[in-house]
## 1
Amino acid sequence: MKLHIAAPVAGKGYAMVESSDGPLWWQAIDVPAQGLELTIPVDKTWNRHDLYLSTLVVRPGDKSRSATPKRAVGLLHLPLGDENRRLDLALESPAKMRPNQPLTVRVKASVKHGEMPKQINVLASAVDSGVLNITDYATPDPWQAFFGQKRYGADIYDIYGQVIEGQGRLAALRFGGDGDDLKRGGKPPVNHVNIIAQQAQPITLNEQGEGVVTLPIGDFNGELRVMAQAWTADDFGRGESKVVVAAPVIAELNMPRFLAGGDVSRLVLDVTNLTDRPQTLNIALAASGLLELLSQQPQPVNLAPGVRTTLFVPVRALEGFGEGEIQATISGLNLPGETLGAQHKQWQIGVRPAWPAQTVNSGIALAPGESWHVPEQHLANVSPATFTGTTAVKRKTAAQSGALHSRAESISVRVPGTNHQRVIPGAVYQCRSIAVARYYRR
């Protein structure tokens, strides 16, 4: 194996072949300014995949030229992967399908050399491509996991960092403490995201290396990435394909992330005709939960092929904490040779109170056998759905800086005028204590 070493300065040092267990080969080197060509023998016993080629070149200091010592380190992964143990996996899936149907994927495994391995296992999954693109997620490759580059397992320690020129900035520690148990903004609204991520049970291919996988696909419109991993006792591989999921008529509701009680909003319903025929569609809308409609039902919609129309849906959010739902029923779709039923769609919107959370602190000294309740004036206009609380209990007063006691029973907090009751840990002791409760009201 040939290795070219190009150091920033001429100097002497070492070239090594290293593994996580230590050096497997090394040689002293003298690198001129133009670089050095080095021949490294490869031992057949190096049957591992954590090998690295490393070089260390040092230029000594020279007081006559006011030159300080300089150190250069080179690192290169040495791949020894066995391509004969790689499985080629081909996936045959439809280029386009409709939602709420099973996705059938045909799997075909092959090898470049030799006979087909016995008992090839395959694990297949289908995931929304939009979600995978957020992090540039790559399809997992088991061959790369076993035979690919591993982490460099050696640590280099020397004192050259104390004498070489320092051109970098000083590092600064960044740390923080525990966060507050109660969020100052109150409870976040409920949000729903429709994500498709289906994974089938592993299957075993037949003697010809073929098999079929079925994945259920729900109410989804978009692109799916079908991913599959194959393995035997000695061989590994992967494959992927793309599938577009689209209904003949797509209905999408554009809405805010959440609403506050009393808000009035105009939602936007986009209806797109993806068929090659004009369609006359009937759209029925309904609201439930913490939402109510403020308009009459829309008139029938006439859509030419490939045309999209926009409907406005005014709604009002009711008081409370939770979610509301908009339902749309689309009927009238006409396709030759098909009997199609009504299409039902649902969208959820989180609803929260229209005012921010309030934090109230209370404290009292408790004698043995006494209990404590939140003062009723602090619970005025409390929304039971958003009520939360914590306690901090000490054996000593705050002035004595006592540590928190770990043995506690409970505080029972009841909201006057309601059936809402919360039990908060920590209150009753066989000594004088300080109890502090903190809770939200809206």
## 2
Amino acid sequence: MKTQDIETFDLVGIGFGPSNLALAAAIEERDAGASLRTLFLEQKPAFAWHPHMLLDDTVMQISFLKDLVTQRNPESRFTFINYLKSHGRLSDFINLKNFYPTRVEFNLYMAWVAERLKKYVQYGCSVSAVSAPGRHPKQLAEVCYFDASCGQTHTVLARNLVVAVGGQPKFPSAMQVRHDSERVWHSSQYLHKIARLREPAPGHRFVVIGRGQSAAEIAHDIHGRFPQALVTCLFRGYGLKPSDSSEFVNGIFDSAFVDDISAAPPELRSKLFEDHQDTNYSVVDAPLITRLYEIQYRERVSGQVRLKFKNFSKAQRIVEGERSVQIVSEDGRTGSEESMEADTVVMATGYQYPNPPKVLSDIANDFDLDPDSKRPKVNRNYRAAMKDGVGYGVYLQGCNEATHGLSDTLLSNLSIRAGEILGELLGAQAGALPRDARAAIRHVSLSA
């Protein structure tokens, strides 16, 4: 097929989760769709944000003001407040006196925004390859995708790509887990898999591996969902640790901190990351820790212990048998191996964010790599540096934690990041201005 026969877009987005949804909102508000021909491709059949971790009563860990748009443009029609108003719940939400909506409601809010921006996205489209074949003299990227709605493969050309594919489930090294296993699964599959269990036999042994927020939420959910089940939490440390969400520390999720850390030398970045891991990694909201401790204590009083915590234990191997699962762990105090049996194992072991994402493997040689990290160099506004002669642009969202800070994989900075990416796409030179002026541009320019 000739180049002129293939549809060309100014921007092709791969993935339509919160990051690219926020970008679509910015494009719509700036009326950039008229000048920036845009297509987002999403493999899911409809918008969904971590659908299998939308547990009842779990709440957001960020303020509703950190929605898809408010920090960039408080007057936007896509704010969480406007969502509440349109559903007749604004006064009721205010009466809650709470900054933190449930995760279920926040997902509904984002789906509401996605519905209003559906002209930009094609669902059920899985990108199989991104390339830059010679016939396009590296000025355009070629995106090949499978459309489940018609069962056909299509190709489009892009002057710019923005990739936001989210994290991939992470498992302890050297641990082999079958994706289709009914006994061992990652937390990302939790609600889907737990529904298939229905009502397990009394004494069914659940083991939850991990000690972060997801692990704690899953352990609490299983304990309440199945009153006769046994639940063991297995983790490397001593106990569950609370997340640091104090006022000064919360500043690391602000856009101004991204300015600081992206300009900092690698040694300082590493130090800051190490110092503040307890804002996001292997930590749990304090009220949930209290709830789990109270459950454990009351069960010890009654003598009916169903919830246990096995600390200092590093999972080494999992052997799935016909009727049960064997977990081999290393005791951190002695180095000795221990074995335990389980009926169901949930791996709440987090996610990994490859940079560049796997979907870009065919154009990996087009990136200008950092000589030390071997990752693409990414500027302050999330544009990857390309080798000489490469004319198409690539923007990376959600895989730049090492250079842009702990907020990169989270929702905290989505609205401002969307404005920064769009500003660069439209040729804005905000990055060359002083910080105060740059902040003003972030706040108002995209609402013009």
